[in-house]
Amino acid sequence: MSIPIEEPSDEEYKIVKDFLQPKSTIFAKLLKVQDEVRRAGSVTSGALVWKSPKADEYFKNQKARAVQIVSEEQRANFFNMMTKIGDYFQEKEKLIPPPSKRMNFDVLDLCMAPGGYNRFAQVCAISLPTGEGGLEIHLPNWQENHRLKVKLLNLTMLSAELGFPTLASQDHPSTSKFSNHIPYAGRQFDLVFCDGHVLPTNEPEEDSTSEIRRLADAQMVMALQRIKSAGTIVVLLHQVYNPRVLRLLKVFDNISQINLFKPPFCHAKRTSFYLVAKNVDPLHEVARRLVRDMRNSWRVRTANAFGLEIPGDPIELNDGEEKMEDIMQSFGGRLITLAEPVWKIQTEAMEKAFLGAKN
């Protein structure tokens, strides 16, 4: 099964919703609550608003805080939030073994800052330099921490790591932005975190879609190229019923043991959740196909973003793409079992915060 490069169509969303709504009362309630608070459309200023005034105020404040995390208090609060999520992960999922079995347990954190997860094990990390818009690492004395190795790199520009070292020609003005460095080459890890995200800006959201996908593609390629056999990959995703996300979940269900995880704080009102994939088989043919698809998705989106020519023959990205109807028939029941706890947390949080419900 392939992951298409195109964004999901309205028809695919309809197929997913038509399958899930009659089979899951929790999902049907989530859609109802989302409809009561969701964005109402463009206003004369060009900004998007929400039907619920409380939701409109909440998400405007969320975006403002994410765009400009500048004060020491803001940085400390964000670090504490990520630390709390990391502690909750450890409590519920036991991602990292007890100290007696931790000596040879290696972690790769692909978008590390501010560093809240990295207190329990030996960690190699990549973090976007602050000069390129990355967050500051908030771990005390992290440069001297012998358990922590950090490379300050833009993951989306590692063209050799992502399979296309000559994507930018030598005479192209953007060539210097790309790097053929291969971080942690030859290393394999027991646990890989892929929870990086593109910080929101004041630009229209559709302008950031390509950058979001480039980062997601790059993280997934590197994770599957560095994970040990039977290791664990943790991925931050958004909206379980997004057809593209569904395809990814089905892929991981074929190559690992998966669970969906949503902290009942921090992420509760949002569509975000975590995929926890244990016992990953990176050599499985389905995993290899996923790496191929993500590499080529990154290549096409990067070429479009920087005005590059794509060398060589075009690669058919949608080779073997499964129809959404077939995915729902084969995976829909499994999806409901996995996703209902996530939908329940979000529904109750939105009702309480935006509609005045008492849970």
From TrEMBL:
InterPro entries: RNA_MeTrfase_FtsJ_dom, SAM-dependent_MTases_sf. This is Ribosomal RNA methyltransferase FtsJ domain-containing protein. It comes from Penicillium frequentans. One of its GO terms (molecular function) is methyltransferase activity. Gene3D superfamilies: Vaccinia Virus protein VP39. GO terms for biological process: methylation. Residues 90-279 form the Ribosomal RNA methyltransferase FtsJ domain. It comes from the Eukaryota.
